[in-house]
Amino acid sequence: MGSDQASTQHLEKNKEKQDMKIDFSKIVGGARGVILKPFFKQCGFPLVVEQGVKLSNITTIEIGDWVRIRSGSQILENVKIHNNVFIGHYCDIGRNTILEDDVTLADYVCILGDTHDYSNVDKRAGKMYSLGSRTIGKGAWIGYRAIILPQVSYVGRGAIVGAGSVVTKDVPDGCIVAGNPARIIV
After folding, report:
1. What is the mean pLDDT of residues 175-179?
2. Which among 97, 111, 135, 163 would be 20 to 30 A from 62, CA to CA?
3. Contact 161, 179 (CB under 8 A)
4. CATH at residue 96
5. Which domain, by its residues, includes 118?
6. In terms of Cα–Cα distance, which of 95, 111, 113, 114 is closest to 103?
7. pTM as predicted
8. Which of 10, 82, 89, 116 is catalytic?
9. Is 89 a catalytic residue?
């Protein structure tokens, strides 16, 4: 047997071993999802919840099918997550947020749900309050470390928010926005 054929066989065996490897984080995350399922207001299957995810007032959170929430993320009350949604590491999802089907949030995305009453000049960081609900449209992709401010009520279907962007106003369907403040680029 020639050295080329031997190395090809070796590579094939290594590939078979890699294909057989089990991703234990998915198994543990899936088990965590099964354990948490009865506590949600509504919960589909499968749900993968990785270690260190914080769920505020879990009985008000609704989750669809095929949802994955990566480690360190935080989800506040009255959040509705539809089907086939991916939430990256260390994301913050503020209260009264709707993530429609097929939404992808990269790592460290922040969707702010509340703001401060700053009308009192003696105490600018006054009482927290919500400006209402916000919807991230079907198929939207929110890039790494993007921030969506509380006054934004809609990020359009199929929209893309570039990495590091600060979204200060609604994003129309199908647009690509980027920058600080985010502006339509396509």
Report:
1. 98
2. 163
3. no
4. 2.160.10.10
5. 3-184
6. 111
7. 0.82
8. 116
9. no
